[in-house]
Amino acid sequence: MRRNLILLFAVFFQLESLPLNGSTAAAQNEALPGLEPVSGSVVCPPGVYQAAPDGCLPLGPSEYLTQIAATGIPYPILPMPAYAPPAALNDIPYHYFRVTDKGEPLFASLEDAAQNQPFDHLAPGFLYVSYVGIEIDQNGNSYYRLRSNALIGANGARAGVPTFQGLLFSSQPTRAFGWVLGETNPRIAPGMNNPKSGNTLYRYNLVQIYATQDASNLTWNLVGPNEWVDSREVARVDPHTTAPTGVTASRWIEVNLFEQTISVYDNNRLVFATLVSTGVDPFWTRPGIFQIYEKKPTETMSGGSTADPSDHYYLEDVPWTMYFDEQRALHGAYWHNGFGYARSHGCVNLSVGDSHWLFDWANVGDIVYVFDPSGRTPVDPSLYGAGAP
Fold first, then answer.
1. How far apart are alpha carbons 66 and 87 in whole angstroms?
2. Beta-carbon-side half-sphere exposure of residue 292 (alpha carbons within 13 Å)
3. How confident is the model at residue 5 (pLDDT cuts 50, 70, 90)?
4. Which of 291, 280, 276 is closest to 353 using CA atoms?
5. 203-217, 231-245, 293-307, 369-383: which has the minimum mean pLDDT?
6. Of 195, 226, 278, 313, which is the most buried if we count CB atoms within 10 A?
7. CA 344, 345, 348, 352 torsion: positive or negative?
8. Which range among 20-24, 150-154, 214-218 shows the weakest confidence by mean pLDDT?
């Protein structure tokens, strides 16, 4: 045993006396070039480092965060200073019924209905009525009692009120944002040929927009780390702090025809934004600067050609109506949930809840600024009639 220990010590001292080769000497006497000192270094806490800090290495999570910060995404990613309006704004004292497109007779009483003796008839078209109850005649047929007190046959369908609502803001947003218009899968980089991120966005999802870039003849929005969405899939709002050219007040309503959004400013600060539906070709919503000249809590709207059922419409109890350009108005639309897409006869359609909020906020005389940043909406006055829902 003693002999073995003596042999082991002899080998140890022999190794200690050997000269170090060049690479081993460099490793012991020099820091790794520009990276790590002789004593080693710790990894920096997760964060964005625009320059290499002293005392730690910006690797791992920090390296990733610094990379995405270069694309415009901050760390930490902060939520928007936004909150939902009260859900109770969707509540209205009306019940709606969609009449069949072929039209229906109107009766003064159940007796007249049983004998098929109408006093009037709704012409074929796009028809909604407001009812207060359901009654049954002596033959067992059901009729809706309208708010006008007329009776109409129950040949159609009850209409539910869409409950989409926009956003209120506690402070000015620092970047653009928008609502996703339909189910979509972001790409990891701008361009149709790039792989999908694996995430799915759905209609009415809210996204912040950190950067914009053109690729594949399309414009793309960066809505998250390595998540780019075709701009046509998002209705975008760009907050600003000064009034548009020609608007002299610090309080105005801004309608973006290209994005199909509305932004409300008070004291030059964005306070509310949401999706809308404006006029389709050839019933465009006219660009320009207007003022609200009349407010009506409810309105019955009708128009179009009675000879052409595809163009005729009759809509009872349209809520929260504010006229600003002849018969063009801001108002609630209970008959569709297509906000974010143009589909009206010239009016600016909002959800019932959003129109209620706007009606409460707005005053007669407030400015309505309507514009199309794409320049596609014609501005020739001769192309515009009085307007309609």
1. 40
2. 24
3. very low
4. 276
5. 293-307
6. 278
7. negative
8. 20-24
Question: Residue type for 67, please?
Answer: Q
Cα(342)–Cα(255) distance, rounded to whole angstroms? 12
Torsion of CA 54, 57, 58, 62, to 10 degrees: -130
Exposed / middle / buried, residue 315 (Cβ in 10 Å: 0-12, 13-18, 19+): buried
Distances in whole angstroms, Cα of residue 363 to Cα of each of 10, 185, 252, 266, 367:
99, 41, 10, 12, 9
359-380 burial, b if ≥16 CB within 10 A, otherwise e?
A: beebeeebbbbbbbeeeebeee
Amino acid at 17: S
Question: Could you write out the three-class secondary structure of 294-332?
Answer: EEEEEEEEEECCCCCCCCCEEEEEEEEEEEEECCEEEEE
Q: Are 118 and 105 in contact (CB under 8 A)?
A: yes
The contacts of residue 16 (CB under 8 Å, 6+ apart) are: none
Separation between Cα atoms, residue 75 and residue 46, nearest integer Å: 9
Angle among Cα 163, 167, 169 to the nearest 5 degrees reads 155
Question: pLDDT tens digit string along 17-65?
Answer: 434 344 434 444 444 445 555 456 788 888 878 787 877 888 877 777 7
Structure tokens, 363: 């005053």
How many residues are given for the chain?
A: 389
* Cα Dmax for the chain: 127
| CA 379/CA 196 separation, integer angstroms | 40
Buried b (16+ CB within 10 A) or exposed e, 137-172: beeeeebbebbeebbbbbebeebebbebbbbbbeee
Range name among 14-23, 161-170, 241-250, 311-320 with the lowest pLDDT average: 14-23
Distance from C-alpha of 316 to C-alpha of 128, rounded to nearest angstrom: 6
The first and second tokens of residue 256, run together, are 């973006």
Residue type, 144: Y
CA count, 13 A, side-chain hemisphere, 291: 9
* Phi, psi dihedrals of residue 159, rounded to the nearest 5°: -115, 125
